[in-house]
Amino acid sequence: xxxxxxxxxxxxxxxxxxxxxxxxxxxxxxxxxxxxxxxxxxxxxxxxxxxxxxxxxxxxxxxxxxxxxxxxxxxxxxxxxxxxxxxxxxxxxxxxxxxxxxxxxxxxxxxxxxxxxxxxxxxxxxxxxxxxxxxxxxxxxxxxxxxxxxxxxxxxxxxxxxxxxxxxxxxxxxxxxxxxxxxxxxxxxxxxxxxxxxxxxxxxxxxxxxxxxxxxxxxxxxxxxxxxxxxxxxxxxxxxxxxxxxxxxxxxxxxxxxxxxxxxxxxxxxxxxxxxxxxxxxxxxxxxxxxxxxxxxxxxxxxxxxxxxxxxxxxxxxxxxxxxxxxxxxxxxxxxxxxxxxxxxxxxxxxxxxxxxxxxxxxxxxxxxxxxxxxxxxxxxxxxxxxxxxxxx
Length: 393
Fold this sequence. Notes:
The protein is α/β, with parallel strands linked by helices. The chain has 13 helices and 16 strands.
């Protein structure tokens, strides 16, 4: 135990446990831990168990004594064998325990989806994995899993992640989707014509929007949109910010579900069934917020640079525009063209608000492309605020 590896990370001391810990070496382990703690005032102790093969009750008692003296003790990278010991003894209820995660590679894998928080890869014919951008994504993954489960119970067809893996330094969530294709692939590989693909997507979207829930895990999209507007307070004239904020504030809260990032890459087709993926944006609210997100995916994000559309969707800007136009008309089935375009402007206002805020947050004020996009959004917002007096329809 004298050569036990350790590393200090601010107020956290990381200790690397190895081999076997039992009654023979547990006292030495405790002495070593106490000696290392004397070097600093640590508030957290992380016990990395990546190389730990076995721990007896004597070793567990050492950790319990440590837990009484430190604000937080957690065990990470715990193997299935060691986890079983911790679980059987009830230790998992006393100390935070994080299992070791299977390592997978996405090198050379097809990207079948991409959202604000991660990319979705097909790693074999039966399996896809969503790799999160954040290196600290475990809470996001667990939250998305709960959102997906909630949607599934409510009857929304969705793929639920069944495993968490490591992909280099990132975390990923694994889904089983046997030979599934995204709706976009159905279109680009000419499996189905554009009209049918769009009709299928809108049929699913309407079923989502018809579903109601008061589950507190579902965030309010109205509150999220108010946050976008508030961010722009210092970047818009006071009268424009005031009207934008008021328009969003006047939208009533709703318990109807929204996907939040609905486009053809986030819908899979498997054995005649449509399944949603990328569920971390699931929320509740008025459909104008969903339409705004769809407008951005098909039109808004690529307005000043067509390559953004072709790289993201894999189709031309003209095709993306047609998908949006058909989607909007089908969703608003029965409304005349003038009313459809009126509602489109409402969606555009929210859409450009989101894009402008997103671009500024991503350092767009300091890049030529970012400045062009921000100015484009600013101009649209100014023009739309002159003609949009309510977001409701």
